[in-house]
Amino acid sequence: MTELAPNAPPSPEHLTAGLVKLLTVRAVGGDHFEGLKKRDGFGRVFGGQVIAQALAAAEQTVDADRLAHSLHAYFLRGGSEDFGIDFAVTRDFDGGSFSNRRVVASQQGRPILSLTASFHRLEQGLEHQEAVMPRVAPPEDLPSEAELRAQYADKADESVRHLFLQPRPIEIRTVEGRHWMNPQPSPPLAHSWFRSVARLPDDPRVHRAVLAYASDMQLLGTCVLPFGLSWSRGELRSASLDHTIWFHDDFRADEWLLYATDSPWSARGRGFNRGSIFAQDGRLVASVAQEGMVRKIEPKSVVKP
Fold first, then answer.
1. pLDDT (0 to 100) of residue 133
2. According to a count of CB atoms within 10 Å of the terminal CB, is the N or C end of the chain lower?
3. How far apart are CA 231 and CA 42, in angstroms?
């Protein structure tokens, strides 16, 4: 990766190359793999990173003609960006058409995520698609996330304000323009376009890893839309509990993908969220589901002298 001049803003190509490098795991022997730590992070490992790295580790243990079609992950502990991540893969099953792998991600000897992934040898079959791509504004007509973050940075909580202006390898354009700031209560439904900010390698495994990474963005916030609360204003505490992805069709993660999310339920300190990811030609290329812990932060009472 080309070194940047001091204080120079990173180019889209530099940001994308950094993301690909982050999501590429290194084999260290015996079905064990090492994932890099993220540079310039905010301390806590992003869940999408661990999912994508765990998928990448599992993919290295199956034949190239077997494509990942689903994964199911449980977040066990928060990870730290001060350390790399160890991935241990167990080869549970290799059949005539399907393979199954279990992955445990650990830091400092403590598991932070467990993931099961299934792989299927590509074949032809019966086809139908009930899901219809929502009619929403195209990405070209929407402001970039960078523009919105610059606009609202001074309204964010001081603890996350510096992150608003940090360049990102994934570009997101929200249709409703309110998903992460939540200025007022609204139905638990949201739409956003996303893609990498520069072209990715042609390897489909890279595109699946990037989609897995990006699928953990925007999703959990859907269940709090009815309450008009925002992480960015320091009103919420949350943690992803589990995350599931089904890969349906071919796609490129460096081309615009529409992420349609909804939340049918939240209560008891948890929120359930669903997502459908469409290519611009209307194909449903992936489905996502996630439950997370969501708690309102109550303002501290002021003790009068």
1. 97
2. C
3. 14
Helical residues (DSSP H) of the chain, grouped into ranges = 12-22, 47-59, 145-152, 161-164, 204-214
Which is catalytic among the residues 196, 263, 276, 290?
290
Positions in the chain short of pLDDT 50? 1-2, 301-305
Domain-wise residue ranges, the chain: 12-122+139-296
**Residues with Cβ < 8 Å from 21, sequence gap 6 or more?**
1, 36
Q: Is 240 a catalytic residue?
A: yes
pLDDT of residue 302: 42
State the CB neighbour count (10 A cutoff) for residue 296: 12
* Measured distance CA(103)–CA(91) in Å, rounded: 9
For 130-162, write each residue's pLDDT tens digit: 999 999 999 999 988 777 777 776 766 666 666
Question: To 5 degrees, how large is the angle CA 261–CA 24–CA 239?
Answer: 40
Cβ atoms of 266 and 273 closer than 8 Å: no
Integer Cα distance of 25 and 60 in angstroms: 9
Q: How far apart are CA 20 and CA 272, in angstroms?
A: 29
The residue from 53, 240, 263, 276 that is catalytic is 240
Distance CA 142, CA 165 (A): 19
- What is the dotted CATH code of the domain comprising 12-122+139-296? 2.40.160.210
Among 107, 192, 216, 230, the active-site one is 216
* Residue 31 among the catalytic residues: no
Three-class HEC string of 182-200: CCCCCCCEEEEEEEECCCC
